[in-house]
Amino acid sequence: MAGSVRQPIDLQALEKYIEKHVPEIKIPIGIKQFGFGQSNPTYQLLAANGQKYVMRKKPPGKLVSKTAHQVEREYRVIHALEKTDVPVPKAYCLCEDEEVIGTPFYIMEFLDGRIIEDPGMPGVSAKERRAMWHDAIRTLAKLHRVNISEAGLTSFGKSAGFYDRQIKTFGTISEAQASTVDIETKEPVGQIPHIEEILRFFRDRKFQPKDRAALVHGDYKIDNLVFHKTEPRVIGILDWEMSTIGHPLSDIINILSPYSVQHEKKFESLPQFQEDHLPGLPSQSDLISWYRETAGWDPEPDLPWGMAFGFFRNTCIYQGIAARWAVRQASSAKAEVHAKARWPMGDLCWKFVGLAKERKGAEVKAKL
């Protein structure tokens, strides 16, 4: 839901740019700011003719991470996917000139549908809940089947070594974030517990999954999807700043995350994912089966390793929110709450590292 603007922008300069470069958007415009979007401030634009649009921009000030907040990549991939069967909003323009409103931004179509923050999907029937989850998984599989060359995205990322790069990237990002000092308390954000042992495990090739390459979203989850107002289908995927060419397992792990924390007391906010708790909610096995049917490969054997890395990645993301909160750059009203979740998430990462080691050991013994 869009509300009051927490991070003001130069509306006159924005209108001048729109009038020159996107004349189909009629000025003057009204502006509100969405509550979601931890990384890049997101605004709703109301044109003079009543049409709504969405603007995403980089946050102001010195950025903690140079690899985050990449609105340019968001624009590029959304624009490229308009030619495919993957549902995305129409992209209207990308402005990389910081002189306009202070940081780069892009404007896209406003999708008039349902954004559901709770993956348990309260307020819908059991039949619709199951159908909506089914289409979310089918949409993900369609994304992973996109022909990267035909979409014009061959330079969007490297075709091999995704997890090797991810391990290095998030290790570097985490180190930078850990040293960020709160401007009021003067306390550093702090290191992720067991960080050295965790990184050593992920770098060990005998545990890593077989390398694959696909167009991946990078943060694929229910609240980054827009569903049709009355039908159980996805009409748009949002928040593409972490998209790249990578291992499709990474997206699968992200959408499965509510299932992987269902028995953890630290995450009792997801009781609906307890077995048989919510009618119509598919099982994790259902989701894997639906994905396999459309994507054409089975990710199940790699789930423990992927879960461990997924929790490491999410720990780094929450640590990043904590770092932005420390210097008061966080754009979401929930930033402080999310920042406090970084260490419980780190504990889950450490737990799944152990589970992945156990499974690999069992597989080796079975072959003897």
UniProtKB/TrEMBL annotation:
It comes from the Eukaryota. Gene3D superfamilies: 3.90.1200.10, Phosphorylase Kinase, domain 1. Residues 31-257 form the Aminoglycoside phosphotransferase domain. InterPro entries: ACAD10-like, ACAD10_11_N, Aminoglycoside_PTrfase, Kinase-like_dom_sf. This is Aminoglycoside phosphotransferase domain-containing protein. It comes from Monilinia fructicola (Brown rot fungus). The lineage of its organism: Eukaryota, Fungi, Dikarya, Ascomycota, Pezizomycotina.
